[in-house]
Every structure is written in C-alpha cells, then in structure tokens.
Design a protein that fits this description.
Elements: E1 11-15, E2 18-21, E3 24-27, E4 31-35, E5 60-69, E6 72-82, E7 88-93, E8 98-103, E9 109-118, E10 121-131, E11 134-146, E12 156-168, E13 171-181, E14 187-192, E15 197-202, E16 208-217, E17 219-230, E18 233-245, E19 253-260, E20 274-280, H1 306-321, E21 327-333, E22 344-352, H2 355-364, H3 375-380, H4 382-385, E23 393-399, H5 409-418, E24 423-430, H6 435-447, E25 449-455, H7 458-469, E26 472-476, E27 482-487, E28 491-495, E29 497-503, E30 509-516, E31 521-526
Parallel strand pairs: 17-27, 19-31, 20-21, 20-23, 23-24, 24-25
Antiparallel strand pairs: 1-4, 2-3, 5-6, 6-9, 7-8, 7-10, 10-11, 12-13, 13-16, 14-15, 14-17, 17-18, 19-28, 21-22, 26-27, 26-29, 29-30
Length: 527
Amino acid sequence: WTYTGAALAPGTHVAIVRLMDGDVAIASDSYVMTIEAPAEAVAPEPESEPAETTALTFDAADVDSQEAGDDGVNAVLMLSGMGEPGATVEVFTADGTSLGTTTVGDDGAWTLEADYSGAAGTVDLTATQTVDDAVTHEDVPNMVELEAAAEAVILTFDAADVDSQEAGDNGVNAVLMLSGTGEPGATVEVFTADGTSLGTTTVGDDGAWTLEADYSGAAGTVDLTATQTIDGAVTHEDVPNMVELEAAAEAGNGTVSVAIGTSDDAVALGALPTIELILDASWSMTFPSDSDQEIDRLTADNPDSRIGIARAALLEIIDSSLPEGAPVAVRAFGNIEGNLACRTDLMQPITPLDKEATSSLIASIAPQFNANTAIAAALQGVPADLAGVEGPVSVVLLTDGQETCGGDPAAAIQALRDQGIDVKVDIVGFAIADDALKAEFESWAEIGGGAYYDAADSDSLVDALRSVFGIGYEVVDADGEVVATGRVGLSRVVPAGTYTINILTDPAVSIEGVVIETDADVTVEVK
C-alpha cells in the first residue's frame, strides 16, 4: 500500500499506521520523520565596478640647462607629475611636437628629461596618459619660461701694428700685434687676403683679444680680416683691418710710389667706378671723436670736431687718391636744415671730378642745429642720383650714428641692389662706441655687397677712406712675383731692379720697365 499525504511543514513528525478490521485496530510502531527546510537561495553578489584610473597630474616643468640655438634656444627640461602606475605619459609642445614618453613608477610618480629646441619665451606644454593603449587623461597643462640667449658681442678689429720687421725671402718678415674686442671666451682667427691664417686667440673675460702673429710675404698694404667663433659656430667674419709693411731701406733697395698726376707723361688709368659719397652732417658730428657729452660739443668749424676731422680726411683722399675726371657725386644730410629736420640733398651730381670744386664743396658742409640723421632717406635718393649711369658704382656712407628719422636703411640698400644696378655699398663708421650699432652697420654693408670700416680718430679715418676710395697697385718682378702692394698715394721700398707696376683698375693698366735703383725714389704718375 502507499499513501500520499499533504505536504508537511519542516520539522520532526511521527507517523503511525493502523490496520482496521471491523472494530479492531492494530497499530504499527511509530515512524519518526524529519523534514528539513529547503536552503534559501543566495542572491549573487553584484559585479564590482572596475577600479578608477589614477588621475594624471603635471606638477613641475623646470629648466635644467639652456644655450643659444639655431631656432632660438636649445634647452634640457625636467618634467614631472603623478599618474597611474605602469601607465605611459607623453609630453607635447603647443604645436603638437612630442618631447618624449616615460612610464609612471610603482609609487605613482613620473619624470621626463626632455630636449627642447625652439623659440624662447613662454613654452606651453601638455601631458597625456595612456593605459593599455587607451588614453585616460590628455591635455594636462603646464608651462616653462625660457630666456632668450644673449647675442654674441660683436667682433671688432681695432689695431694692427708692426712690432718688428726685416727683409725676408718673400719680401718681408714681420711680427704683427693685432687686437680688438669680442665675446668673452670666443675664438678669434685672423686671415690675410689670400685666406692664410695668422693664428687664433681667445677673447678674455674683459672682452678684449690680442694676437701676436708672424707674417711672411710681400711688403706694402696687407689686408687682414678677423673671424669670431663660439662653440664651433661663426658669429662674425671678414671684419677688416690693414697694416702697412715696408721693406728695410738697406743697400740695394729703392722706393717706388704711384701718385695722381696731371702731366703729359702720366699714365691714363682704366675705367673707374662711379663714386657717390654720402656725408653725415647731423648735429652729432659737432662732438669730438672721443665724446658724446653735451659739455664737450664743439663748433662746426672746429677742426677737432667730427665733421672737421671728416672734412680733412676727405680732402686728403681727394688730393692723393682720386684722379681728376673720376665720376663723383656728393650727397649730404643735416647741412641745410636743422631743428630735427630729416632733409637730404644732392650737393654735387655725378660729374667728372674737379678736385678744387669738390674740395671746396666738402669744406663748406657743416651741421645745422639739432639736424637728424637721415641715413635711409639719403640712400633712397641714390637711384635718382645714378639715373643714366652705366658700369659699376661705389656708394660710400660716412656716418657717426644711427638712423633717427624713422627710416629703414637696410630696406633702402636692398631696394637699391634690387634695381639691377652694379653697385656696392661700403659704410665707414666714425667714433662709434656702441657695439650693437657697429653690428647693424656691418649687416647693412653685407646687404650692400660691401664692407664696414670702423674708425676712431683722424688717422684711422684716413686709412678707412683710402681702403674704400684708393686705387690698388702691385709691384711685380721679372719672375712674375709680386714683391709689394699698395694704394695710389703711398710709396713702397723694394729691392733695386726692373719692375712692372700693375694698376688694379678694370681693366688693369700695366706699366712695364720701371727701373728702381739703389737709394732712388721713383714715382709713377697716373691720371
């Protein structure tokens, strides 16, 4: 038999079975049952949210070192912050250039030593954090300040003196004492005109350099140039100077000179370039050459004023270095109108040189009270001055100061060159004490295809003007060797013999069979 009853509640139950036969009941033994309660269902624990990534911080951006670079400044930056351990951090400049990547350490800190090359000033930076190739934080900002590197001090080549000299196999052996100023610690090298190095020296802490150099070569005018190098980079080059070397006047030597003459025997020169002189007659030209102090100002007719020294030097050059008939123009500024005027005038149009008339004109040019320095305006007048001129042109600016009329002399020189004129612009700076202004003049002359000449007194001004205006010559022996060089107006000592004198015009003029006897003075005249 079987019995299916109602569901029993959990717990202990006793069951007894009775067999009924009529009124007789027979009971079974008790049967104990234990009903266990079913286990309660356990709700699954909710899945945990993934741990949040540590935020990226960009705490520091410091400069470890910096120096001047081609693009402005080269610097080593020390960058640091906090982030997710193991994450990759990359730092960028504002234009998106990556400065490098690094990994966040187990302590949550990151550092990056980064090389930067670019403009100085405020450099904006941002950092980005990547975890498992996924960017978690980006454009976290910081910035660093980089100072512009100081510009190299301009190189000057102030003196080229002869310490000692004697006759040598190549003409003369000499010890030269060379000096100037430059950037402390820079290397200065001096060269002859053919590129031969006379040696190197280091600029001292006081900004001065000196070089004792051995020279062996032709006597006469020895053109020199100096170059300044800092950390292997040339900052200034072809800064000019010159030294005059004469062979010892000993037995067997004579003297030769080339001079401007007017006699029928004078040798006609080849074509000369057209010359336009621009003379600064601004009010500052009434100072003496060694002062800019108002208490030291002189009158315009004082021979010790800058304008007095300049006039005297120009008259000497006109007399000794330029032949009658050479095409010459004279322009000036500051000599007609004062009171801050910026006027410039063509005082003598291009005309065959009349030495007396041109000298008289130069002597009459005098600064007017408070006249400004109109360099750009004067240069802008040159194209009209040169209208109809053919052949090479030499423009020479003689000035003692900077542009004060708001013009742009560099642009004026470039515009002159852009017109297709065969022109070079040389600049003679007189009594210039400002290195930055010298550098500016040097850059203008470079634009003009010429050179900058620095003069501090009357002697150096004459030398500078002779370098610009003087006609060169060379003395060549029977073997074709150049034994001396010079400029018209200067004499040279050479061994007795027969020579060819080459006058370096275009084309060159050769005067053959010039006999130099012992102790004789021979002058070759040109016109």
